[in-house]
Write a structure and sequence with these properties.
56 residues; 57% helix; GG1/2; transducer
Length: 56
């Protein structure tokens, strides 16, 4: 889906391109899982493995 041009009919072609790009980025962000869930999963994976650079 692209930015609805009716929202800004006076935008130039370059401005419309940028608006479409930002609009698509926002739509992708809305479809993503919450960052906190991904962070918790990554943290649990990292914490469960010993650091290879630290002496045991």
């Amino acid at each position: 889906m692209s930015f609805p041009s009716s929202c800004c009919p006076c935008a130039s072609a370059d401005e419309t391109f940028v608006l479409n790009f930002v609009w698509e980025e926002l739509e992708q962000i809305e479809r993503m899982d919450q960052a906190s869930a991904a962070c918790k999963e990554m943290l649990s994976n990292v914490e469960s493995k010993p650091d290879p650079l630290l002496p045991m």
